[in-house]
Write a structure and sequence with these properties.
This protein is mainly alpha-helical. Helices cover 53% and strands 5% of the residues.
Length: 676
């Protein structure tokens, strides 16, 4: 163990502490210092992370540990929250030995955020260090990649004039106050850039103070999902409103800021760093500086982000309640899984209880109370049916039954009608089925069930044997022979005959039908016959039509000029309307009675018109900004002040959407006030 060591100052890199040890130990050569600390003469110093900590800790004594050095005297805590748990363990193993794998594991090697080429310091921090400790030292918060300002004094960092690359391969640079510029004079930089950079610097410094195992990228990703869901950036359960999100992200930062820091986001490109962070974080590591950019976009700091709960999905975390009012466990959290589906970009959760009760809910849930809501009942279960029959037998009123079982009154009337059985009804529904089958001889049972639901339900519940005999399911007739004497050959012949009749009837009903139309309407029959009954298929289906070239006699140039002039004339009228309307291609189509202006592929054939529409049409956000600016002008004229809450209410904009456009409005107000 060493007789003494220069204990690190607050937030000092271990690299800096070793450089001071070399100075105070009066070693002539750095090789001697390496021998004393690491028992090796060939170690190459690492400024940011360090290495061979296991040997170093043994020589320094019991006051030090590998974990404490990594957490308190390296820049690793800057990267730790955005690293997987597995890689965090690997980094811990790396610093025990030569540390060669760290840069690759943390994504530094392949990242585009440039590493700092030298050592940096804050003039005020260095001046304070000299006053307190009689010497300056290397602060780890000043060496963070992407961070250009001191988080304590909000001054731009300065580069130390000694280049470590030219200094010594095995050497450690110690700050010398005689070589440092301790004046508070600053290089000029855009004030907008500075505001953003200072906030990022403060967040980065806060990361350095966190325990290195408090967060991992797995937890961070779930918190991002929460922010995306809260701000309505998710199209479905997983898909982003990508274009809208990317535009909003770019507009959050001053022009040129993202380009300067190698973090540009383009609307058209795929698999960009922002998309990877929010959709597939396991694909590759993303630099912590870019994570800070995203937190800045969401108006988060590190503390508020830590308090944020991870996303639990569109329907929260289970278990979920059974909403069967007839069951003893009504509103008890007994459903452990939810099946999530998407229909027309709408999330639907299906909840199935062991009692047989199944219900769905349209998501996502917005409040905790939504957990007790159902959109539709799919199945009732035995306990519900039993209580229903009991209430009906007791001659309880329909209204009370509906209230008692928590269903609509119409549902009760329908189910009571189904329960009623009589010879007259049975005969009536049998006749309806036979008439329908005679009218549609090749229709299947599913079609009958869909078109005559009430008839099918009655026969299925009260006369199933007759129903199956007269109208067997397609599975019975085509796929699974019930009679063991029926051979596979007969089964195949039945299927071919059935599919032939489907296509033949369709052709008789509409002689002009095309093969494409038949394929779209009868996909299974079309495919089966084309593969297994090719001779009949080619002989009976309509001939394939040859594509004909249509001579285009449209004078697109003349039409382009005509539409361009009409739009240019009507545009000022639309802008001047007392009640603002959003300028869109559809609006011009209605106003000018030109339907095709709403079709993108058509407008692209009209270059002048297309260019004009791209310039003057508005997104929803742009329209909201224009509408707000009109109200702002009125407010400034009347009261010479703008109240944002009143502005939001006047323009009927949701809080989450108003939050996105507020920076543009503040900039507009600032320009207006300067011009006054």
């Amino acid at each position: 163990m060493l007789p003494f060591f220069t204990d690190p100052y607050p937030d000092e890199l271990i690299y800096s502490a070793i450089s001071r040890y070399h100075f105070y130990s009066s070693n002539i050569s750095f090789v001697e210092t390496l021998e004393e600390l690491f028992q090796s003469r060939s170690i190459v110093p690492s400024i940011e992370f360090g290495s061979h900590f296991s040997i170093l800790v043994q020589n320094l004594g019991s006051n030090y540990s590998v974990e404490s050095l990594l957490a308190n005297n390296t820049i690793y805590p800057y990267f730790a929250p955005f690293t997987t748990v597995e890689r965090q363990k690997k980094v811990f193993e790396d610093v025990h030995t030569n540390g060669q794998g760290i840069h690759g594991r943390l994504g530094i090697s392949g990242g585009k955020i440039p590493r700092k080429q030298g050592l940096y310091y804050c003039s005020m921090c260095a001046d304070n260090d000299i006053k307190i400790y009689d010497e300056p030292y290397i602060h780890r918060e000043h060496q963070l990649q992407g961070i250009d300002y001191c988080p304590h004094h909000e001054l731009m960092l300065k580069k130390y004039p000694v280049d470590y690359k030219e200094f010594s391969r095995h050497g450690y640079i110690r700050f010398d106050e005689r070589l440092m510029d301790l004046s508070s004079l600053q290089e000029t930089e855009s004030s907008e850039f500075k505001v953003v950079q200072v906030k990022l610097a403060k967040m980065a410094y806060r990361l350095l103070q966190m325990p290195i195992n408090q967060l991992s990228v797995e937890k961070v990703f779930l918190k991002y999902r929460t922010l995306l869901r809260e701000n309505n950036w998710l199209m479905t359960n997983t898909r982003l409103k990508r274009e809208e999100l990317f535009r909003a992200f770019k507009s959050k930062f001053p022009q040129g800021f993202l380009e300067k820091h190698e973090s540009l986001v383009t609307i058209e490109g795929q698999n960009q760093w922002l998309q990877i962070m929010l959709t597939n974080y396991l694909r590759s590591s993303v630099h912590p500086f870019r994570h800070l950019l995203l937190l800045y976009f969401f108006d988060q700091d590190i503390d508020s982000f830590l308090e944020l709960k991870g996303d639990e999905g569109p329907f929260g975390s289970g278990p979920w309640p059974c909403l069967n009012k007839a069951a003893k466990h009504y509103k008890t959290l007994v459903i452990s899984e939810v099946e999530i589906k998407t229909r027309d970009k709408v999330l639907i959760g299906k909840f199935s209880c062991s009692c047989g009760f199944e219900y769905t809910r349209i998501g996502p849930d917005k409040t905790e109370e939504d957990k007790w809501r159902k959109s539709r009942i799919l199945a009732y279960g035995k306990s519900w049916e039993k209580k229903f029959e009991k209430l009906v037998a007791l001659n309880v009123s329909r209204e009370k039954i509906a209230l008692e079982l928590d269903v609509s009154l119409k549902t009760i009337y329908n189910r009571i009608a189904i329960k009623v059985k009589s010879p007259e009804l049975t005969e009536k529904y049998r006749e309806e089925l036979l008439e329908w089958r005679e009218k549609f001889p090749n229709a299947n049972r599913k079609q009958f069930q869909t078109e005559l639901k009430k008839t099918f339900t009655y026969l299925y519940n009260h006369d199933r044997e007759w129903l199956d005999a007269n109208f067997p399911s397609k599975r019975d007739t085509l796929h699974t022979p019930n009679n063991p004497n029926v051979t596979l050959k007969n089964n195949t012949e039945n299927r071919i005959e059935y599919y032939r009749s489907l296509l033949s009837d369709a052709i008789k009903e509409c002689p002009d039908v095309t093969r494409t139309q038949l394929r779209l309407k009868f996909q299974r029959a079309y495919k089966y016959l084309s593969e297994n009954d090719k001779e009949w298929f080619d002989a009976n289906l309509p001939q394939t039509r040859q594509a004909t070239t249509i001579t285009n006699a449209t004078d697109w140039e003349l039409r382009d000029q005509e539409y361009y002039q009409k739009i240019k004339e009507v545009y000022p009228e639309l802008i001047a309307l007392e009640k603002p309307v959003r300028i869109t291609g559809t609006l011009f189509s209605k106003r000018l009675n030109i339907f095709n202006l709403a079709i993108k592929s058509y407008v692209e054939k009209l270059p002048q018109t297309n260019k004009l529409l791209n310039e003057i049409t508005e997104t929803v956000q742009e329209f909201q900004i224009r509408r707000c600016c009109i109200v702002i002008d009125r407010m400034l004229e009347e009261d010479n002040a703008v109240r944002f809450e009143k502005l939001r209410e006047s323009c009927a904009i949701e809080s989450k959407n108003f939050k996105k456009i507020k920076p543009y409005l503040e900039e507009y107000i600032s320009k207006r006030q300067k011009n006054v």
